[in-house]
Amino acid sequence: MHRNESLLWQGIRVKITMQDSFNMAPVAVIHSPYKEKFAIPRQPNLVSAAHGKIELLLDCNQSELIRDLEQHSHLWLLFVFHGTIERGWKPLVKAPRLGGNKKTGVFATRSTHRPNPIGMSVVKLEGISRINDNLAIDISGLDLLDGTPIIDIKPYIPYSDVVVDASSQMAPDAQSSSLTIGFSDSALQQLAPLTTQYPQLQTFIEQVLSQDPRPAYRKKSNDMQEYGMSLYDLNIRWQIQGNDCTVLSISQ
Fold first, then answer.
1. Is 94 buried (19+), middle (13-18) or exposed (0-12) by CB count in 10 A?
2. CA-CA distance, 199 to 191, in Å (whole number)?
3. I need a labelling partner for 48 at 20 to 30 A (CA). Which of 20, 22, 30, 248 fits?
4. What is the rounded end-to-end Cα distance, in angstroms, of the chain?
5. CA–CA separation, 251 vs 239, rounded Å?
């Protein structure tokens, strides 16, 4: 089914055809250390120690598709918010930047709940590898949930993608927290044997927690709060009181 509209633009009659849908198959899938939505940074490159892989799929698992890819330091990823599709969307959303209570237009935010659940992210290219018989692109600085379908990969071009005089009144700069991150003695003992498998694990945990992943309304409380998050195949327990954040345990 199609809906046709005719619009007059600068004296020119323009015919617009609205198709019900477009069929797109994923070109790749993300293997990410973020196993759940909680604790994923709200923007890419805020956690540089986050490393993952883009596994090319089916017809796109060909070396020709990534020829000369390493001439670029960073990549644009277009992906599907597969973890929130079932919740649908609304024209107004609560933006974390506005404290989590005030609503604003979905097109004025990067909310995951959109008319078309498409996201975009800039990641750093670290190299090319393989996952069994499939080609993989090694990346860092990612902010994607494990298993996210990738619908396109494009090179980041600095001279055109960087707009030096761009501004955003809603998000003028990266948010920073005043949390002091520490590890309990037992957490440090549990961390030690894991550093071979995860060389930057302590830095990774510190960077994730420094983003203060708590819901906005909980950040105003000085009461003791305890949380858990899944990174890689690890369950990490941590608590916050005031500005002190302490990792309590790291278990598999």
1. middle
2. 10
3. 248
4. 51
5. 15
